Amino acid sequence: MPEAHSPTEKRVRHFRQILVWPLQLMPIHAGSQIQKHWELLQQSGADNPWHEIDDVFPDDPARFHAQQYHEFITFLPHVQRFLYGESRTARQGRVAGASPMRVFRRRDIAAVRLVPEPGGAPLTLQVARVDLHFFFDIDVVQLVVEVAGDDLTLFQAQDTLYRFGRAYPAGWDETGQGMHCLPRVEWLGADGATLAASDFEKRDKYLSFVGRHRAPCIAAHWDFLLRPLVLDHADEPGLIRYRQLEYYRMPVIAYLALDDPRALSRSDFIRLGLLTAASEQSGLPYADRHVADFEQRYCYDRYWGDRVDGPPTRFLCCGHALVMVGDAASPVFTGAETGLLAQFRHQYFLLFLIAHFQKASLLMFSDRLVEALNRLDIHHAESVKEFKRVIRQLFEIFLRFTHRYWFHELSDLAQSRALFRMCTDHLGSAALFDEVRDEIREMSEYLDSDSLRRQANTVVRLTIVTTFGLIGSITTGFLGMNLLAAADSPFPLKVWYFLLTLIPTTWLTLYTVVKSKRLSDFLEALSDERLPRRAKLGALIAVWRHKKAAG
């Protein structure tokens, strides 16, 4: 960074960015509804960098802090159970199982070095956490990466928000650099050594991967961060495999503390709220008409205005991003224990994580429905049976998701409730939920109707067999009225009588089953009083008439 700055340059005294990247986990146990992927992560070798953390909500009162208490009481009881589970006392006598959310963290990454331009001065940010959030009964994991820095220019903050969280390049410019992403990103260890670096410039690698697998390739530094998780389409083996669910641009929640937040122009807020490319120009990133309702759609201004008591604070939300802008001189905004900075890292982060978890889960259900349809071969009975099993399994999992994880309200606090609603509305989660629910319901109803149709056909055939078998039953009953006195006959003669009756009866029963559909049509015609005798006779003859093949 340059040593001298313009006195009018807008400075971000403290900057934080949290990336929340939802990924779909592939099944590890065929036929099992609940896939506990974190157990494989726990059983990995000594070189596994991920370790489960138990201080999210510790049972030991001595380790329980005031901030965790404030975080806990922010949410409604059903959300509390989702985030924190139940106490060991409350779990006694209940079915043992994993907590609703399991968090794993790696501590080997201390910082990230961002190179904004080839040959330019790098920007180094501290890495506050790198976590993986697993969820019980849902095959979704969320990678969480939090970075922080002090005394950045507004341009640097906007540029980092826009270009850092990119899973792979959108394309390449004439110099061969990846478009809309940083030329170089490096993960740094505690000693400052480079642990992994990006490879956005390797155009042939990304092109060949898409050409071979019909799926995007993940950049090298993100691939390193997720290890031992492996991209499902990659050729290398891996116990836990994942797929991309959403757009290659990772959702982000950001915190900006400025000397004078009111000095930001409308175009500055639009670039922050919509995560557009950074610019030092004063013009709008889009046409006036396109952003005419920006304040109404994307701004939460409960504490923003000339006459509002307290420090000015503005929330910007477009679904893909949630940005907090406030006064760096205010302890209310910058307090790391009780201020908005603490709430940003805890309450608002969890709010954002839940909103994207819900959408990611719905996308996962939709993807698995499509995959089940792609595997269906109606000409093979086993494929049809497997399809039915998968659909019924998805329906059961979706029901559990609906009652365990799907909710429209997560807090009674007006600000948290409003921001969560803004986020889910922009994400379109409610419409997506209705769409996935209808798809699964239609599939389930089709399977139920198909089963009922098969059962009805079976009942019809059995009814026909019973009806025509009634004739034989009466006949044999009549014959059994001592017309043939075989009770005192020799045993071989009895066996002969038995076989003489059994063989024709068995053949007649099987033949009736074969002709049951046509016999059913004949009985229906016979019972119709409106049909003439000739038509009824024709229906009887049609039982033995062979249909000619069409064409």
TrEMBL record:
| Name of this chain's protein | CorA-like Mg2+ transporter protein
Q: What is its main location?
A: membrane
**The keyword Transmembrane appears for this protein:** yes
Q: Which Gene3D superfamilies match?
A: Magnesium transport protein CorA, transmembrane region
Q: Which UniProt keywords apply?
A: Membrane, Transmembrane, Transmembrane helix
- Give membrane topology per the record: Multi-pass membrane protein
Localization (cell): Membrane
Q: Got a GO cellular component term for this one? A: membrane
Q: Which domain of life is it from?
A: Bacteria
Q: Which organism is it from?
A: Pseudogulbenkiania subflava DSM 22618
Q: Please list every transmembrane segment annotated in the UniProt record, as residue ranges.
A: 459-483, 495-514
| SUPFAM superfamilies reported in the protein's UniProt record | Magnesium transport protein CorA, transmembrane region (SSF144083)
- Fetch the InterPro entries from UniProt: CorA_TM1_TM2 (IPR045863)
